[in-house]
Design goal:
By secondary structure, the chain is mostly beta strands. The chain contains one helix and three strands, in the order E-E-E-H. A three-stranded antiparallel sheet has the order 1-2-3.
């Protein structure tokens, strides 16, 4: 779990936040990190879910974040 969540859910302060790693390639939904995956190595993200309020947060994993800087699809927002 990231250090930002060790104190609890950012929405309700709940103490039961669960996490898993998943592919962000779309499948049956949108490709959330399009252009950051590679053939047979899709972009990945960590999903955090609060068991108390259901709040969900998504975080690109380290390898995926490294691909941002060289990507032609993503531009720096600020």
């Amino acid at each position: 779990m990231s250090s930002a969540h060790r104190s609890g859910c950012t929405a309700c302060g709940g103490k039961e936040v669960y996490t898993t790693k998943t592919n962000a390639n779309g499948g049956y939904g949108p490709a959330l990190l399009s252009g950051l995956g590679r053939f047979l190595d899709p972009a990945k993200m960590d999903v955090h879910v609060c068991a108390d309020c259901g709040h969900i947060e998504l975080f690109a994993d380290g390898d995926t974040r490294q691909r941002l800087r060289g990507s032609g699809r993503w531009r720096k927002a600020f």
